[in-house]
Design goal:
- Helices cover 86% and strands 0% of the residues.
- It has 2 helices and no strands.
- It is elongated, with a radius of gyration of 12 Å.
Length: 44
């Protein structure tokens, strides 16, 4: 992978982090949390 690709992935992940935080603040959702963990595993 090139650095540009990694930077893009980082931006996308940060976007997801922000959205997930908003969702979790609005309503606690276990599925979202587990989805977040599995998403991290796939990329790393």
């Amino acid at each position: 992978m090139e650095m540009k690709d990694l930077e893009q992935i980082n931006r996308i992940l940060q976007d997801h982090e922000r959205r997930l935080t908003l969702i979790e603040k609005g309503k606690t959702n276990v599925k979202v949390k587990s989805g977040k963990k599995s998403l991290s595993k796939h990329i790393i």
